[in-house]
Amino acid sequence: MDRQPIDRDWEPIDQDGVRGLRIGGWELTTHHGSILSHAAVEAHAARLGFTPPEMIFGDGFLRARHQSGAELSLAALDALQMVRTGVDAARAVQVSVADGWSDARRTHGMATVNPFDWTYSTLYRGSGSLAFAPCDQGIDYALLRQREEILFYDEGVLFEDDLGDNGCAQLAFRVRVMPSGFFVLMRFFLRVDGVLFRIYDTRLHHCFGSTRVVREFSRRQAPFDDVKRQLPRSGPDDEDLSLLNNIQFVDGVIGDPEIDCEVAVLEPR
Description:
Distance between the termini: 23 Å
Number of strands: 18
Structural class: alpha+beta
């Protein structure tokens, strides 16, 4: 993708906990909410039909709004709407204590909810009015690797759960805005101890001045022991098991992804 003329005209946003900037016909903002209250979790459990994660930052979001009216956002509750339910989903990943633990979590307060994917794996790629269609050309990473001033950067967690001490499920995002464009990464990370690792990544890139927003969605999964064998060792019994909790380490050893490339075309004002 050709680099467009760099936009030097931008305006910061910092009001009522919402931060970001206006640049290149876009308003890009983030907000970090607190963990939902017990009453709010109860209400969302009733809507979702399953027990939500222990930590939901329900008021947190990342939002990219274009001057044409097109918008894309990342939000925890929208992502949880895409968690699979049903008996097959509940049994898709098995650990020795999973049946008893997931059955216990099916009773939330006074209500009994349906079986669900207790790992909270979600194929969520974002919400909003941007219409994406499959394409052959993905993100131009050579362009992203060029050194540029970072006008705005933020990161945040949308939801997280320790899976009843069986591992970790987390959905988080990062955004950076440069004079030439913006780049977003949303990552679902799953560790089920003794069973598997899973990473679902959604990446978005836009060059200011162009009409294209490119999105890549990738899936990776590996058996737990395959990742564990990649741990650095200074001796036969010397493993740094803490690295299995390090998302960056797992990201580097989990293997090649399966990638879907999509593009959205912005309408003129």
